Amino acid sequence: MNYIYKKSLKIMPLTQSAVLIFSLFMLVLSCQTKHLPFETNVASCTIQFPITSHELRNRYPNAVESLSAELTDTTRDVQVVWRFNDLIQDPRSQPYGVLITLRNKGPKMDSIRTAFEKQYHKSFQPLTRPQHLGKYEYYESDSTLVVMEINDEVQLSINQRKVFPHNTGNQFMNDVVISICYNLDTTKKERFAMKQGEIRIRD
Question: Residue 167 burial (CB < 10 Å; 0-12/13-18/19+)?
Fold first, then answer.
């Protein structure tokens, strides 16, 4: 009996150590997979990630739902479009990005850009050569498009709204579009900025 008792005493510290190591491993793993929340204010609009469809409907009671998984709130000066992968009807579905259009703010684009750079202490970079286009996709270069990686989860981009008149090429309007995406991979981040919020490859 004494021999068995001594053996059990030797085994106990090893068992406790194993439990401690496993607990630390699970803690590190949970930290790696948890995405940091993000919040900012753009033109008196609170932009928050993550957020659910249900919460957005409460925030924007007059928002209009579209078949392309968009929830749009429009006022005289600002249009806010939330983009989803999943059905908006599911109250738990979360948007992957938002596009805020500031009407007639084209002349203030440089000051808007500077304000974001001061806020996040980072610089915007031009995005002129996409690396992740689909095989049959074409991208018309946008000289106004600039991108900032705020952190691993959040990308912010700014450009002037484009229109494509027939046979006349790009024409830039006075509207400024601020696009923010959340928790996307590198390919989808690029597409989000270039394709006005669309992240699916269309081949």
Answer: exposed
